[in-house]
């Protein structure tokens, strides 16, 4: 029972007449009636009582109509998604994100997306966490990743994952033996800092903000790759979410331990999308794929 036959049946049930249904669908009455007769033959029962005043559903027809309504709604939904996939084959998507996600997570996610959408192009730029909402809200970028916090009505977080700030250290560092570390634990060790202010969300623990501002870094860099190398060379420790070091942690090249701060451990990073303007087809498809990718982070 293909879509055309079900559509003809539904319209006839709605209009109560083959002639009126055919006129509404812009097909010949004979073609529409033939489709209904084929349905009745396939099901082995009459779907309409043919009365002088028109067509009236039988009990079997009522049952079929219930099925048809749901089937055609779902068919239209699937067809819309297929059209969306076709429209997303080409285009451009701009993403703005906190630096740690650009090191590994987003390049890998885009590479997997590229397998299905090879003609889409991207702009992938690091930004201060506090600037990401503005850049997405004003249309500079289609999507953004930043720490979860209050946002204007023009934005919404599509998905969130835990992203506490912790201590990244060489794999053989003494603090690796601890499950959680305190500010006093890390104070004696050389500190490596990323250039720029901490995200406002880090101020959820006022003690951490005071402690961090009082440290004198051995090395300051705006390159997370440089800081990664410096950590592996045992130049010091650094404070990051683990999301920028997943591969190194898995390979045992560095270790990550959370602070013993419930507020810091409640920090999350989310995917920001516009709430007041429709995304382009490729941006919509990429956002859906990134939600799936973030689900993998949840279980990592």
From TrEMBL:
Q: Which InterPro entries match?
A: HTH-type_LysR_regulators (IPR050950), LysR_HTH_N (IPR000847), LysR_subst-bd (IPR005119), WH-like_DNA-bd_sf (IPR036388), WH_DNA-bd_sf (IPR036390)
Pfam hit, one = LysR_substrate
Keyword annotations for this protein, in alphabetical order, are: DNA-binding, Transcription, Transcription regulation
Q: Which GO terms describe its cellular component?
A: cytosol
Residues covered by the HTH lysR-type domain: 1-58
Which Gene3D superfamilies does the record associate with it?
3.40.190.290, Winged helix-like DNA-binding domain superfamily/Winged helix DNA-binding domain
Q: Which GO molecular function entries does the Swiss-Prot or TrEMBL record give?
A: DNA binding; DNA-binding transcription factor activity
Q: Does the record's keyword annotation contain Transcription?
A: yes
Q: Which PANTHER family match?
A: HTH-TYPE TRANSCRIPTIONAL REGULATOR YBHD (PTHR30419), LYSR FAMILY TRANSCRIPTIONAL REGULATOR (PTHR30419:SF2)
What family is reported? Belongs to the LysR transcriptional regulatory family.
What name does this protein carry? DNA-binding transcriptional regulator, LysR family
Q: Give the species this sequence originates from.
A: Falsiroseomonas stagni DSM 19981
Provide the taxonomic classification. Bacteria, Pseudomonadati, Pseudomonadota, Alphaproteobacteria, Acetobacterales
